Amino acid sequence: MKNLDKMIKGIKNPHIAIRVILNRLKNFHKRIKYKILNRKHMIRNNVSFNQKTVLSGKGTVILNDKVSIGYKLGGNYHGCVSEFQARYSESKITVDKNTAFNNSNFILAANKIEIGSNCNIGANVTMMDFEAHGTHPDARSQVGELGEIIIGNNVWIGNNVIILKNVHIGDNSIIAAGSVVLKGNYPTNTIIGGNPAKVVKQIKRGD
User: Fold this and answer.
1) Is beta strand 112-115 parallel, antiparallel or unpaired with respect to 106-109?
2) Is cis: bond before 196, omega within 30 of 0?
């Protein structure tokens, strides 16, 4: 029934049908492109690239079913890029099903970043699981400490959030816009905010 409704809608509004076809062709092209350039990248069913997106690095990027990247009505849509960079051969970024990204996000893994299912991720969000430079002055030209980032399921991350290494976010949590999240285990069902971020309150039924 759903497919029939789409066909009827397409006949009545041919411009919608053309847009849908072009979108599917664009997404198919990206899937083939990334498969050819890096066989470690895995793009599952119905992944939507709604903004220019770059999958880079020598490691593995896995985008599971119905992940969407980019939102036309969101900020930083026009002329901006989202990038998922698994920098080294053993680096890995995994995004679980039904997770939606807004625009202009930068996800950079030197080790491991895992993002759960059904998450909503705002515009201009940065995640980095390592220190790009050593802490000691003599080690600034070297890569610093590696860690990991684990985002649970059904997490809402606001715009302009920065998440750094060794952060674990519990299921159903919210990270307030503009927060800088430093290492730590943040419990489920909480609102996290500030710089440095901390647990602001528990989310309770009826909130």
Assistant:
1) unpaired
2) yes
CA distances from 87 to 84, 108, 171 (A): 9, 7, 27
- Say if residue 91 is exposed, middle or buried (CB neighbours under 10 Å; 0-12, 13-18, 19+): buried
Q: How is residue 135 written in tokens?
A: 């802490």
DSSP code per residue over 131-197: -SS-SSGGGTTS---B-EEEE-TT-EE-TT-EE-SSEEE-TT-EE-TT-EE-SEEEPSSEEEEETTE
Over residues 154-172, the pLDDT tens digits come to 999 999 999 999 999 999 9
Which amino acid does the sequence have at 37?
A: L
Catalytically active residues are 133
pLDDT tens sequence across 76-108: 888 899 999 999 999 999 999 999 999 999 999
Order of all β-strands in the sheet with 53-56: 53-56, 82-86, 106-109, 126-128, 162-163, 180-181
Report the SS3 class of residue 92: strand
Beta bridge partners of 148: 112
What predicted TM-score, i.e. pTM, was given to this entire model? 0.83
